[in-house]
Design a protein that fits this description.
single chain; 206 residues; alpha/beta; Ribosomal Protein L4, Chain: A; 2 domains; 6 strands; 14% strand; RNA-binding; Ribosomal_uL4_dom_sf; rRNA binding; Large ribosomal subunit protein uL4; Ribosomal_uL4
Length: 206
C-alpha cells in the first residue's frame, strides 16, 4: 500500500496517508491508457468539416468546348477538380468520430494513470483546500508553496471560491472525483488531491 505525505496549504507536511492499492497501486496497462486517451481526443472532435465535390459545386453543366479540333485537352466540365472553382477530389464530409470503450477498460485505464502519477511522485495530497474569497493570487500562493505550476486540482465538492480562483491561472484546471479522466491526469505535471477527494475516488473505483 503506497504511503504519501499530506501537506497543508502552506506547503508544510502535516502527516501521511495510505492510498488504496486497488486504485493507486495497480499494474499499469499502457495499452488501455493509450486507448482511453485516443478515445477522449476522438470524441472531442466535432466532425463538421465539409468541402464540395464536383457534383455539389455550382455550374459546369455544359461541355466547355468540342471534343476534338480545338488544340485544347478534352474537357467535360468546368467544375472538374483541375479547374479553378472546381470540386474537391475525395472531399471531407461530416462524420462521427466517437469511439467506444468498455466501462471496465475505462476504469482500469484511469487507475493505471493514477498509479503512474504516484510512482513518479507527481501526486500531492492536501489536508484541505479552502479559500475565504475568490482571489487568483491566493490560489497561486498555494501552488507556489507546493512548488507546482501546471496542475490538475481535484476537489471533493464544487467549491466556487477555489474553482473561480484557479480558472485564470494558465496550466491549472480543477475537477471533481467523478469528472477526472485519463487525458487530464497525464497532461498536467502534477495531480493535487484533497484528502476528501482521495476518499471519494477510492470509494468509487476501488
Amino acid at each position: 500500500m503506497a504511503n504519501v505525505s499530506v501537506f497543508n496549504m502552506e506547503g508544510k507536511e502535516v502527516g501521511t496517508m495510505d492510498l488504496n492499492d486497488a486504485v493507486f497501486g495497480v499494474e499499469i496497462n499502457d495499452h488501455l491508457v493509450h486507448l482511453a486517451v485516443v478515445r477522449q481526443l476522438a470524441n472531442n472532435r466535432q466532425g463538421t468539416q465539409k468541402a464540395k465535390t464536383r457534383s455539389e459545386v455550382r455550374g459546369g453543366g455544359r461541355k466547355p468546348w468540342r471534343q476534338k479540333g480545338t488544340g485544347h485537352a478534352r474537357q467535360g466540365s468546368t467544375r472538374s477538380p483541375q479547374w479553378t472553382g472546381g470540386g474537391v477530389v475525395f472531399a471531407p464530409t461530416p462524420r462521427d468520430y466517437d469511439m467506444k470503450m468498455n466501462k471496465k477498460e475505462r476504469r482500469a485505464a484511469l487507475k493505471s494513470a493514477l498509479t503512474s502519477r504516484v510512482q513518479e511522485n507527481k501526486l500531492i495530497v492536501l489536508d484541505e483546500l479552502k479559500l475565504d474569497e475568490v482571489k487568483t493570487k491566493a490560489m497561486q500562493n498555494v501552488l507556489n508553496n507546493l512548488n507546482v505550476s501546471k496542475a490538475l486540482v481535484v476537489l471533493n465538492d464544487n467549491d466556487s471560491n477555489v474553482v473561480l480562483s484557479a480558472r485564470n491561472i494558465p496550466g491549472v484546471v480543477t475537477a471533481l472525483p467523478n469528472t477526472i479522466n485519463v487525458y487530464d491526469v497525464l497532461k498536467y505535471n502534477t495531480v493535487i488531491l484533497t484528502k476528501a477527494a482521495v476518499a471519494s475516488i477510492e470509494e468509487v473505483y476501488a
